Amino acid sequence: MKKVRIGIVLGMALLFSFLFVGDHVSGYFGDMILNSKAEKRGMPPVVFPHWYHRAEFKCKVCHPAIFEMRSGANDIDMKKIIIDGQFCGKCHNGTISWKPIDCARCHSGVPGMKTGVLEGFPK
């Protein structure tokens, strides 16, 4: 019986990881869509997994020191992230967290997504 319970717990953990920690093709509730520059520059929109970062860190880690909490207030681009170490690059620098060199990891949106907060779960 103990092995069955352990199996159920492990199975549920595996299912959770597939459902909620996978790629962000459509995004999850509370994620941010960043597309004010992406498509104009030939890239898919960015789907920022705000829900995941919020689960791991307190708001004050990023706000207001790194990001202003107002839509359109942060003029984010790849030069500022990779070369200047601003915005996402504060942590995603290869030391604190993975370096942003795999474009599709962040640029995972679909064409036409509007910049803003994803208000609901994808269908």
Would you give an account of this structure?
This protein has one domain (24-117): Cytochrome C3 (Alpha-Beta Complex). It contains 4 helices and 3 strands; from the N terminus they run αββαααβ. It starts with a helix and ends in a 6-residue tail after the last strand. The protein is mainly α and 123 residues long. Helix content is 29%, strand content 7%. The chain has a 3-stranded antiparallel β-sheet with strand order 2-1-3, with no helix packed on it. The protein is globular and about 55 Å long. The chain has helices spanning 2-20, 50-56, 78-83, 103-106; strands spanning 32-34, 46-48, 116-117.
Poorly predicted sequence stretches spanning 5 or more consecutive residues: 17-25
The biggest beta sheet, please? 3 strands, antiparallel
Number of helices: 4
Q: Quaternary state, please?
A: single chain
CATH fold descriptor: Cytochrome C3
- Describe the strand arrangement of the main beta sheet, using strand numbers: 2-1-3
Q: What is the H/E order?
A: HEEHHHE
What would a concise description of this structure say?
The chain is mainly α and 123 residues long.
